[in-house]
Amino acid sequence: MTSDARGSRFEALGAYMPPTVRSTGELLASVTAMPDVDLERITGVAERRVYDPRPEAGEDSFGLALKAARDALGHSRYDPADLDVVVSASITRFKDGDDFYFEPSFAGMLAKELGARRAVHFDVSNACAGMMTGVHLLDRMIRSGAVRTGLVVSGEQATRVAETAAREIADSYDPQFASLSVGDSAAAVVLDRAVDDADRIHYIDLMTCAEYAHLCLGMPSDRTEGIALYTDNRQMHKQDRLRMWPAFHRDQLAKLGRTFADEEFDYIVQHQVGTRFVEYANRTGEAEFGTPMPHSLSVVEEFGNTATTSHFLALQRHLKAGTARRGARYLLVPAASGLVTGALSATITHLGV
Amino acid sequence: MAIVITAAAVVAPPRASAARAVQLAGEASLACLAEARLSPDAVGVLINVGVYREHNTFEPAVGALVQKEAGINLDYLAHPVPGAAFSFDLMNGACGVLNAVQVAESMLVAGGAERVLVTAADVHPGGRGAPDAEHPDDDYPYADLGAALLLERSATADGFGPVRTGGSDDPSATAGYLPTAGMRADGRNRITVRRDPGFATQLLDLAADTALGYVRDEGLDLRRTLVIGSRPTSDFGLRLAGRLGLPEDRVLTPDPPGAGAGLPHTAAPILGYLRAITGGLPEDVDQLLFVAVGAGPSAACVSYRPQERWTR
Lengths: 353, 312
Fold this sequence. Notes:
The structure holds 2 protein chains of 2 kinds.
Chain A: E1 8-16, E2 21-23, H1 24-29, H2 39-43, E3 47-49, H3 61-74, E4 85-88, E5 94-95, E6 99-103, H4 106-114, E7 120-125, H5 130-143, E8 149-156, H6 159-168, E9 185-193, E10 200-208, E11 216-220, E12 227-231, H7 233-236, H8 239-242, H9 244-255, E13 267-270, H10 275-289, E14 295-296, H11 300-303, H12 310-321, E15 328-333, E16 340-348
Parallel strand pairs in A: 4-7, 4-8, 13-14, 13-15
Antiparallel strand pairs in A: 1-9, 2-3, 5-6, 8-9, 10-16, 11-12, 15-16
Helix pairs in contact in A: 3-4, 9-10
Chain B: E1 2-11, H1 21-35, E2 45-48, H2 62-69, E3 86-91, H3 96-110, E4 115-122, E5 145-154, E6 159-160, E7 164-167, E8 174-179, E9 192-195, H4 199-218, E10 225-229, H5 236-244, E11 251-252, H6 268-279, E12 287-294, E13 298-305
Parallel strand pairs in B: 2-3, 2-4, 10-11, 10-12
Antiparallel strand pairs in B: 1-5, 4-5, 6-13, 7-13, 8-9, 12-13
Helix pairs in contact in B: 1-2, 4-5
């Protein structure tokens, strides 16, 4: 955990959601071997957005990311040429339609497209904690004085794994079952130096417990043509896995002589896996910290699990709708394959959305 | 204060075996820790910069799998350690190691991390080196190779200089991707590395420009510098030496160890560094200049002044 001196802040936040809506009922109708379960009741996901495959729609991962980056920059005081750093965090790196990229970096291609000519650029890949990881690195680079401002962006064609699952899934115990709850999206956030306490990232600390790195694996399918995600849901969401966040967060706070209650968070944003997961994670936090959890912000009912973008999408939607208060203190808790957990604490007042 | 290299290692797969990036990077990590006489708990952050990996795995971070292989922060509940390691993948083609040094510097200065372990491993996704490989992929140019670099703060002024990056407005003349349309059920074994005519010149131009800009801006004496380069083509070191006006032996682009085919990719800077250590620095050289260049096109440079002198 680091001190606030020379800290960073969220300066602008953007998103792009594909307009095409697919309900959970419509998705289940496409599942070849229809599992005998009420998917909407289990996950709480009523619908999700899906990409438009036509090239002119520009809704491959790269196109989605570009639209979100432009949205964020539209709310920012900075021009693309002002950016010192561009980080891309997409898990699904589809560009030119169906090509899944390993190099060049998406970040470099996005920086070029945006006109961020002098920006240092690189991709981070850290499963659903990707954007949080990008923010973590950018925060450290700003704190160290190496840079002044940067952009973290992610565009996800997550429903590509749902398409594969719909073809291949056998029953609700199938390792691809979790793939049915994902949705497509893009989000982008601009960070710069904090100038006062009204807008400040107080801390962001992340940890990987690697014993469980194999519980969720993404790769091309060896049965049909498509990419797939294989998740051991029972192990992944065991209570001991969920206890990692409070244990780590409590220890980090203890180094500063503080407790969770001292933090006086107004809002908490959990990773948007499903409504039950969010409730379970909050109950675990309440039990472990021995204090009620702050108001929990969610978008999973409407957008599903959007992977890397979920926390930033939840923030953007609630700030924009006025359902989250400005001048408040927010806690963002990642939960990702790896396993990655941690905590981001920020006061948000003037953030452009 | 500066960031220094505490240990470095390169691991090539045993002959004719299907290499795994996770295993190569894991072994290189353990070799680094053994050299530095440190336990896995000493690592605060693990950054994996490899590009090509077994099965084209895209989740979790390969870094998390390497972290498991190296036994670093396996379960915080069972064994809470103060350093509670964090890992992730940083990908920027052949520039990955240098970008990782750039990020590591901020994490070591402002993040409270004591040590950062950088791993760089590339393998053909389908195991080109496997004796039973159905379709040996002769178009894939890179060697199966893993490497690791352990970084930490030092009270001395010696160590890494600032990392500078360079780019070009031109479209990248090289790229690596999986064309998923038409891959059928074989996507775990395929990869396309596209190299347009003129890609080597594009990379050479950018590498030379970025390196000469670095030398000028940082006031380096190129005559007292040993350059460690990427190796996008076999003769790249020779051609880069020509562009920089240096004798051929002042640009190191070593062959990978082992009997396998292919050029070093993300591991090239670590491979070159190890060659510089084992070969010893010439009398009239007192610093290294890492020059990385690859898809983007994207380039990065950083100087390194060793704390102790390796003599020939």
